[in-house]
Amino acid sequence: MGDFAAMKSVSDVSLLMNKIAPNRHLSPFDGTRLFEEGMVEVLRELALTTLFAMDVPASDAYFKAEEVTENKRDSMLTSALPDHQKEALIEYEEALNFSRLLENEDHFVAGFLAGYRFLKQLKR
Question: For the range 32-36, what are the long-range contacts, defined as Cβ-Cβ under 8 Å and sequence gap of 24 or more?
Fold first, then answer.
């Protein structure tokens, strides 16, 4: 980490990368790309920290959709489904919910990055 803390420019990134991988020749474009990718990762962490710190209430539309979904799931679970199919349905729902969570995080991060770039353009 000490090497990264001392970097002040894209050329510093190139020098560090040449130190790490001396047989790989990096162009200035590679240094710029690596620097930008690193900055995107930093901004992504900042965006997720911001997202997790926010307390945004869910909308009425969300609660209505959630109620419909729960009613459908409950009717399937109380129907004549065998136990192994009920368990499979619950596992599927958990996986789907986790996938949606990750998708929502990605959308938030994309909006955060777009907003950051927009503000940077306004400053120019």
Answer: 35/10
